[in-house]
Amino acid sequence: MVQNTPAPRGRPRSFDEIEALEKATQVFWSKGYDGVTIDDLVAGMGVGRPSLYAVFGDKRAIFLRVLKAYAERKGAKAAKALLSPESLRDSIAGFLRFAVESATEKGSARGCLMVCVAPLVNDAEVQRFLQSAVAGGTALVERRFRDGISAGEIASDFPVVARATQVTDFARGLTMRAQIGMPRKTLLKDADEAADLVLLPRRENAGP
């Protein structure tokens, strides 16, 4: 009697997909989106060309996966810093300090992939993703301000929307200054001062 045997499975992957995407991040960091070729990705990710196309797709698809994974990883850490059970001032300062620390992390490229590389990519999907990420970060800061109002840390008429935008603008500015080589110590000091600035009471319109 002849027994049916299952068909042999394909050869298991010889690479870790997450690790390969992390390596791709460094490739895009080092050369920018336009400067990267498929050969660069093959060499940098340690994945053969057929496997690269089969698992990840073309350069654009790889960059989108890298960008989304990067944003998710960084966003989770930023949210943890912002929504910590500390005072409102310390939470805002922690959020801004995280922007500095991640942009000046030893052993990695200065800056942020979402601030220093992705905005230069001429692709509608990339731009929509960045806009969504910025809106999500601003909404998170707004939430923290509203928690501060509920806790009595700031007045009920505090300009939540405007100040939340200022916080995220400060974070991007600090990141860009890190990219051009400003010292971490200086940027951390500026992050603390920025937290104090955005928490200043609402100013009434000056009279004549």
Automatic annotation (TrEMBL):
SUPFAM superfamilies for the chain: Homeodomain-like (SSF46689), Tetracyclin repressor-like, C-terminal domain (SSF48498)
Gene3D superfamilies linked to this entry: Homeodomain-like (1.10.10.60), Tetracycline Repressor, domain 2 (1.10.357.10)
DNA-binding region range list: 37-56
Residues of the HTH tetR-type domain: 14-74
Keywords: DNA-binding, Transcription, Transcription regulation
InterPro entries: Homeodomain-like_sf, HTH_TetR, Tet_transcr_reg_TetR-rel_C_sf
Protein's recorded name: HTH-type transcriptional repressor ComR
Organism: Ralstonia flaminis
